[in-house]
Amino acid sequence: MIEVNHLKKFYGNYRGIVDVGFKIPEGEIYGLIGPNGAGKTTTIRIILGLLKQDSGSVRIDGYAVPSELNKIKQNIGYLPGEVNLYGNMKVSDFLRYNRAFYKAIDVKYENELCDFLELDKTRKFRELSLGNKKKVGIVQALVHKPKVLILDEPTNGLDPLLQKKLYELVENERNKGRAILFSSHNLMEVERLSKRVGIIKEGILVEEMAISELTKYAKKIITVYDLSDKGALSKFEHTSKNNGKITFTIQRKQLKEFMTILNTLDYKDMEIRNPSLEETFMGYYTEGGK
After folding, report:
1. Contact predicate 148/76, CB 8 Å
2. Whole-model pTM?
3. Pairing relation of β-strands 148-152 and 14-24?
4. Tens digits of per-residue pLDDT, 172-192?
5. Integer angstrom CA distances of residue 152 from 29, 38, 264
6. How many Å apart are CA 243 and CA 123, to the nearest integer?
7. Is 287 or 232 the better-scoring residue by pLDDT?
8. For the segment 116-156, what is each residue's pLDDT rounded down to a tens digit?
């Protein structure tokens, strides 16, 4: 279990986090989400013992962090957003080096992970693509079979096929009873992995909710090119550009009405996309969020 209570951290006069707290029991994947600069990375670094909080507490399996970190760090796996290791070291040499930090590594399991991810262990780290570097990070985070997993932007640099493999690995870890924390800017990733999220705003964990509650604030972003009658859709939130492109931000409850009107008009082309997590947060903050 991960227990975080009223964490506070300032960098001199600059705010890191003001009040962050949550609990993650065994067998749960918990999403820590918020706009850039909200305090997600500071929170993760404190949980890992890389930063010391000004006040508040962190406990992992009952052990206090950072004072009792040595008693629990063998059971923590961490995947950073960017994986940067020794450039001239081969992957196989790094994995051998990594084993020295743990009491016992199951080399057979290590090989199974590498095979599953199709990781070429003969390559030097500087020769790897961003996605292959992330594969090394995934193996490093999982190979010692930790009780707790901390994943920071876990799918950065991964193609869709590798994302799917990562999801499978993470879900397998959840099924083994791991307590898993991850931060993300990808709403689809949050929806795919988590049932419960904590929302950070300006260093404060303002609310916890089921992922189904968060998605009600999401909208559709619809871009229409060379629309014949702009006035017919003027009631909907939109921005216009001189190149004939109009971008509408449509609430889900308005979508049917919008499409009904649009289908009566002439236009050259259109695009529909889901909003980014940042855009979803703007909806949350302006439509009932704290």
Report:
1. yes
2. 0.80
3. unpaired
4. 999 999 999 988 876 667 778
5. 13, 14, 46
6. 48
7. 232
8. 999 999 999 999 999 999 999 999 999 999 999 999 888 87
* Residue 35 preceded by cis peptide, ω within 30: no
Q: Side by side, which strands form the sheet with 2-11?
A: 63-65, 55-60, 2-11, 14-24, 204-210, 196-201, 28-33, 179-183, 148-152, 76-79
Model confidence pLDDT, tens digit, residues 10-20: 999 999 999 99
Residues 137, 168: Cα–Cα separation, whole Å? 16
Neighbours of 101 (CB within 10 A): 11
Write out the chain in H/E/C secondary structure: CEEEEEEEEEECCEEEEEEEEEEECCCEEEEEECCCCCCHHHHHHHHCCCCCCCEEEEEECCEEECCCHHHCHHHEEEECCCCCCCCCCEHHHHHHHHHCCCCCCCHHHHHHHHHHHCCCCCCEHHHCCHHHHHHHHHHHHHCCCCCEEEEECCCCCCCHHHHHHHHHHHHHHHHCCCEEEEECCCHHHHHHHCCEEEEEECCEEEEEEEHHHHHHHCEEEEEEECCCCHHHHCCCCEEECCCCEEEEEEEHHHHHHHHHHHCCCCCCEEEEECCCHHHHHHHHHHCCCC
Confidence of residue 278 (pLDDT cuts 50, 70, 90): low
Q: Which residues, 6 or more positions from 65, have their beta carbon under 8 angstroms from its beta carbon? A: 46, 47, 48, 49, 58, 59, 72
Q: How far apart are CA 212 and CA 191, in angstroms?
A: 8
